[in-house]
Amino acid sequence: MSGLFNTFNIVKRGMQAQQTALHVISHNVANANTEGYSVQRANLKTSQPFGMPSLTTAAEPGQLGTGVLVDSITRSRDEFLDFYIRKETSTLENYKVREQFLSTIETIFTEPSNTGIATLLTNFWDAWQGLASNPESQAQRELVRSNAEALCNGISHNYKQLEDLEVNIADLIQNQIFEVSSILKQISDLNQQIKAVTIGGKNPNDLMDKRDLLLDKLSERFAIEIEKTDYNGIKIYAKDISNQVPGVLLVSDSSIVNNFYYVNDISFELSDKIINKNNFPATINRDSLPLEAKIKGYINGDINKEFELTVSINDIEELKKYFNIEQNGENIKILNIMPHILIGDNIENSSPINFSNGSLKGLESLSFEINDYKKQLNNLARGLAISVNTIHSGNTNNTNNTSSNGINFFNPEVENSDIAAKIISIDQKIKENLNNISANKQGTFIGNGERALLIGQLRNTRFNLLGLQSREDFISSVKLNFDEMKMTSNNSGTTIDNYFKATISQLGVSNQEAKRMVKNQENLVDQLVIRRESVSGVSLDEEMTNMLQFQRAYEANAKMISVIDELLDLVVNGLIRR
């Protein structure tokens, strides 16, 4: 039923609605520069009108309204753009970290340059060629020794720099794992708050903005899948490179299901469930991060790649947030480990996570690639030591002597070492006496330089460098004949120089690919972010326009209060005077 008091209530609702809208606008303006903030809108709707005519309700011309109400306060957000920004950001961060460290590796090798290994190899072969032409020259022998020392130092220095880079990457992985665990905890807490507010009938806009910002940051570390649940809750999955659908569950509504840990020093047993259910010991050697585990024994055949792994924790404070071991040449990457471990309990690994993208994927791939470059340097150093020592000493192994003086040119330990590039050096006897350099066939000081010439010819001699394990392998590969001081290039092999050049070429291609992908992804992500900003960002011009609109509406409603006041005064006081 209409009347002045009903009109007053309509005006009151109108003022309250406009005031709420102005409050939302002021909140938008205040957060114009807040990272992750989405612009909010007060959605108005007409309040419930007077009911249909009935015995208790008089028939009136038209259904009379009762004013306005604030239906909801919502944020402007495009979930489609969020999905693609996170997806492309994961790819971008993967290649950004690859570009950063691949460029560093290129700087380590400094190729091409006057101080790079390629130039040092050229100088080394040139020195032997010069000695072959003048085997009695002390100056030429000194040139051979000094160039050999420079080459050894160059290879060893590059190897040690790669080791340092591995440690830096491991530290970065550890820090990012700490960050990921913190983000997962914050998202889990926000999930609880968001669900509580939603159940209460309100929209937790600011809380959801905070959660979305954390999801954006999480997507920088690895690719994620998000599943919406009741009351604005979400589940988070780590997207697996094996394309598991939906992936490894990390956060479920309001709890962390799986987390990441970094383990420093542990002892464990690997149990073979496939062959005969026997156990065998394995030890961890922690020389650098990530941890490396080597199997010390085998049982009745090969170890299956799929096995259960149980880790016993003695000191929970030592539990960190990354765990990386090698088994059978395979790598158990970031592990899915149960949280809330008590001292004496076990951590059981059930499904390793192979990240499909993100900075952790990039760092993980770099760990393997740096290890490959170290292996290639080891192959180079080992091949160089075996080939030169075989010809220089005339020995088919470390004990048997043929026609030369039997002195190795390089330290023979290099030939069987897993860190050949790190320890390569010239033999101590060569360091002590230049006359121990064998330039001639018979190993004497006087001769025609045949042995030095043969060593110099290694520059262009192809042999099976990758499969080279012993001097016998080298002799067989090049058909080395000590009597004639001849060898034959093996067409199925490669030269030492070309092997190194191929390594540098591979590095260059990888880095160029990373640079290209970073440029493309940055352009794509920037465009997507601009589109999201147009939807979710705060436009001060638009807010000022809206402010004037609601301000005028508020003023008009206030004016209606004055009109109603005059009408009530007329009705009450005017009638009394009459």
From TrEMBL:
Domain named Flagellar basal-body/hook protein C-terminal: residues: 535-569
InterPro entries cross-referenced by the UniProt entry: Flag_bb_rod_N (IPR001444), Flg_bb/hook_C_dom (IPR010930), FlgK (IPR002371), FlgK_helical (IPR053927)
GO cellular component: bacterial-type flagellum hook; extracellular region
An annotated GO BP: bacterial-type flagellum assembly
GO molecular function: structural molecule activity
Protein's UniProt keywords contain tRNA processing: no
Alphabetical keyword list: Bacterial flagellum, Cell projection, Cilium, Flagellum, Secreted
Domain (Flagellar hook-associated protein FlgK helical): residue spans on this chain: 102-239
Keyword flag Secreted: yes
Highest rank taxon of the organism: Bacteria
Pfam families reported for this sequence: Flg_bb_rod, Flg_bbr_C, FlgK_D1
UniProt subcellular location: Bacterial flagellum; Secreted
Family that this chain belongs to: Belongs to the flagella basal body rod proteins family.
Name under which the protein is recorded: Flagellar hook-associated protein 1
Gene that this polypeptide is encoded by: flgK
